[in-house]
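User: Before I run my own analysis I want an independent prediction to cross-check against. Here's the chain; please return only the structure tokens and, at the end, one sentence I can use as a sanity check.
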Amino acid sequence: MPTPDEDATAYACALTAQKKAVRRHKRRQKAMNQNRSPAEPRLSPTQKAGLQTEEQAKAYLEAAGLRVVAQNLRRSTGEIDLVCTDGDTLVFVEVRQRRSSRYGGAAASVNRRKQQRLINTAALLLPALAPHCTPACRFDVIAKDGDELVWIQNAFCAS
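Assistant: Structure tokens:
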């Protein structure tokens, strides 16, 4: 059985080791944070690839004659990647990317549940996007499997 003095010594050693570890961790964090700008968020490689695909999709739609009104609009029900106008029609665009089509590909990943989330989010956004009247709306999907972008117009309906 350890004596009270031995217990106090062991506790003091453990406390000192813990404080050193915390200081070392803080120094490492500070060094890592100095290498990036404060406004730059930490993104995983998958998130970076997703943002790059959204930018490609935006350029693709603008080249096709659509006007991008908003990007990455979030509400409690979800997020809409791109909102565009095609003439008098308001277009909600979901951008999906998959490295392979092994499990159905990018377009197949916009399943019934995802479609319903997009519809609910669009319904919440619509009063802010068109405050005076409700325009004709459609839901498009831009799918990227590998290096190829595929634009599916009117991919699903809001019924």
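Sanity check: Residues 49 and 97 are 8 Å apart (CA to CA).
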